[in-house]
Design a protein that fits this description.
The chain is of the alpha+beta class and 633 residues long. The chain has two domains: 94-471, Alpha-Beta Complex (Spore Coat Polysaccharide Biosynthesis Protein SpsA, Chain A), CATH 3.90.550.10; 486-624, Trefoil (Acidic Fibroblast Growth Factor, subunit A) (Trefoil). It is 34% helix and 20% strand. It has 19 helices and 26 strands. The strands form seven sheets. It has a six-stranded antiparallel β-sheet, with no helix packed on it. A five-stranded mixed β-sheet has the order 5-4-3-6-13, with helices on both faces. Strands 7, 8, 9, 12 and 14 form a five-stranded mixed β-sheet that branches. It is globular. The protein starts with a helix and ends in a 10-residue tail after the last helix. One 2-acetamido-2-deoxy-beta-D-glucopyranose (NAG) binds next to loops.
């Protein structure tokens, strides 16, 4: 007995019951009716199946593959109000978001570190413990413990920020803080500062992601603390193995339910009214990524101070993070966000919608390194915008010492860099590779999905990014180092057996004089100096620059900043003098031959101790000092 005959029977039964007097007739016509019913059913079924197939095909077509679809689902189900799905702030209404009660309370707080003041340890035992903990953390953990978790910080925003109003309807926020072996009080101060200084209606949650720390208190005790004191706004996710900041941030982003993801380092403190200025540019266009101004929390005293009043992020061709001066007009309105080519990496806000459209981070990137370049390139090249918001400030503890070793035993950073360069930098990747032979030996792994993403989003070429967004980057950091003005050993005329020597010293330590190397054009690295295209003098032994703060001070080594100033030098081959800073200052490199020390003194043509011979001199470049070399700043 088949399904068909059963169906036919029931059809007959119904028909018979309703019109008994025609039952004979109906019985006679039974096969016809049965067939009609069945056909209708089959057609309906087919229709439903086709609709299903078409829907699936449409979804696959829209998202290219199931993976992307899944990512979109994360986003779709993450958001309550779907902030970006409907027009907002149509009337453009703005309100004052300041919490004046809190600001008043904070001004009146008294105690260690309040108002961001420096705190110094006095007790011998504390100092001893602090020294021990410094090796674990890279900052003064005992000082951190002495300072209240919800201490006040100084409101150092530009005064115009204090009267600034922001859109009334702003998206909600998930703050993602990943941590690895962070000190208890530094981590919790990050959390408290966010809880205290964010409007509760905007702060959906704080997600703490434990990247499989080895410190015990970051497991049971932290979980208990979060559950009893901080829940439900704060959630804690433990990763099953050490995954690095990229994978950990992705785990946090997947768990997030807010409209906007804000990534914060685990040793930060947010400042007054930090959130609205970060969110407004995103509310206006979801493809904008916004970074706060990063202030400095001193690693020794936890003093809170500004770093500067704004620079644009960039990189050099060793892929070191660098900063460029603002462009004319950037601070015409000191409260207005300005374009920045590259984010610093630790602190930024991006809509979940845009983050997932961009595929999040490339999860092939391991531990850390290169991820800020990857995201910044993607944002710019794939139709977004990256800005710094001057009215949003967040303090960050810059460690004085790097406490965590390499968990992989291979150079994962070079591999990460190569992944980013291969996918996003087009023909410019070669300039990175030229500077570091390790690139050639490094396998970047499978890049298929990253390249597909770039093609699917129809992202622009890297050349466009450089020329439109960072035109001054190519000027300040030429892809190939132009020829130097002079190089080789730098010999004293007053005492020809002595030459400048780095003495293998490091940053902030003085240079000195030492018996000259034999080969004057190619001496050993600690005597191999270059008067570079940037108008600074570099030593090959550690790639640091000669730096002098002011007249009569000793010359020290310092990281090259390519901003001239304290590091600008010129060689006058006729007088043989090495002139420091701008010419009108009349400051010259001078040797104390007895103590073998170097100073900057008032220029005096008659003093042989101010005269020097470079191993190699490019007379043509020197004669063209005003036009050859990095622009005068
Ligand atoms: C935060 O500060 C208030 C006083 O402003 C204080 O009562 C509270 O205990 C503090 N909480 C923490 C965790 O430090
Ligand atoms: C100095 O070293 C360079 C490179 O090693 C070499 O080419 C040159 O011949 C050397 N000069 C002298 C004088 O030894």
């Amino acid at each position: 007995m088949t399904f068909t005959s059963l169906l036919c029977r029931s059809a007959t039964y119904v028909a018979t019951k309703e019109v008994t007097h025609r039952s004979f007739l109906l019985f006679f016509r039974q096969p016809v009716i049965c067939c009609l019913n069945l056909c209708e059913l089959i057609v309906k079924l087919l229709f439903v199946v086709c609709c299903g197939i078409i829907t699936v095909l449409l979804i696959i077509h829209k998202y290219e593959n199931l993976d992307n679809f899944k990512r979109t689902l994360y986003y779709r189900y993450a958001v309550d109000g779907e902030f970006f799905a409907q027009p907002r702030n149509v009337a453009g209404e703005r309100i004052d978001w300041h919490d004046y009660e809190l600001m008043e309370d904070e001004l009146n707080r008294r105690g260690p570190g309040e108002q961001g003041r420096p705190y110094k340890l006095t007790n011998g035992k504390d100092i001893e413990l602090n020294a021990k903990l410094f090796k674990e953390n890279g900052y003064s953990a005992v000082v951190s413990d002495m300072i209240a978790l919800n201490r006040s910080v100084p409101d150092i925003r530009h005064p115009s920020c204090r009267t600034k109003q922001y859109l009334k309807e702003l998206p909600t926020v998930s703050v993602i803080v990943i941590f690895y072996n962070e000190h208890w009080s530094a981590l919790l101060r990050t959390v408290y500062s966010v809880l205290n200084r964010s409007p509760p209606s905007l702060l959906k949650e704080i997600i703490l992601v434990n990247d499989h720390s080895t410190k015990k208190f970051l497991w049971g005790p932290l979980r208990e603390f979060v559950e009893t004191e901080l829940s439900p706004k704060v959630r804690l996710i433990d990763l099953p193995e050490r995954s690095g900041l990229i994978v950990a941030r992705m785990a946090g982003a997947r768990a997030a339910r807010g409209d906007v993801l804000i990534v914060l380092d685990s040793h930060t403190e947010v400042n007054t009214n930090w959130l609205p200025p970060l969110l407004e540019p995103i509310a206006e266009d979801y493809r904008t990524c916004v970074c706060p101004f990063i202030d400095v929390i001193a690693h020794d005293t936890f003093q809170y101070r500004s770093q500067d009043e704004g620079k644009r992020g960039a990189f050099d061709w060793k892929f070191y993070y660098k900063r460029l001066p603002l462009l004319p007009g950037d601070l015409e309105d000191p409260t207005k966000p300005f374009n920045s080519p590259i984010m610093a990496g630790g602190l930024f806000a991006i809509s979940a919608k845009f983050f997932w459209e961009l595929g999040g981070y490339d999860e092939g990137l391991d531990i850390w390194g290169g991820e800020q370049y990857e995201l910044s390139f993607k944002i710019w090249q794939c139709g977004g915008r990256l800005v710094d918001a001057p009215c949003s400030r967040v303090g960050h503890v810059y460690r004085g010492y790097a406490p965590f070793g390499n968990p992989r035993g291979v150079n994962f950073v070079v591999r990460n860099f190569k992944r980013v360069a291969e996918v996003w930098m087009d023909e410019y990747s070669q300039f990175l590779y030229e500077r570091n032979p390790q690139f050639a030996k490094t396998d970047p792994g499978d890049l298929t999905s990253q390249r597909e993403l770039r093609a699917r989003l129809k992202c622009r070429p890297f050349k466009w990014f450089l020329e439109e967004i960072a035109p001054d980057l190519l000027v300040r950091y030429p892809p190939r180092d132009p020829q130097p003005f002079a190089s080789g050993r730098v010999q004293s005329v007053a005492e020809p057996k002595l030459c400048l020597d780095s003495l293998n010293h490091q940053a902030k330590e003085p240079i000195g004089l030492y018996t000259c190397a034999m080969n004057k054009t190619h001496p050993q690295n600690n005597q191999f100096f270059t008067l570079s295209y940037h108008r600074d003098i570099r030593v090959r032994s550690n790639d640091k620059c000669l730096d002098a703060a002011k007249l009569n001070e000793e010359v020290v080594l310092f990281s090259c900043h390519e901003s001239q100033g304290n590091q600008m030098w010129r060689y006058d081959y006729e007088s043989k003098m090495i002139i420091h800073g701008k010419d009108h200052l009349q400051q010259c490199l001078d040797a104390d031959l007895v103590r073998r020390k170097l100073f900057v003194r008032s220029c005096d043509k008659t003093k042989p101790s101010q005269q020097w011979n470079w191993g190699y001199v490019n007379f043509v470049h020197l004669q063209n000092w005003d036009v050859y070399g990095a622009k005068f700043l």
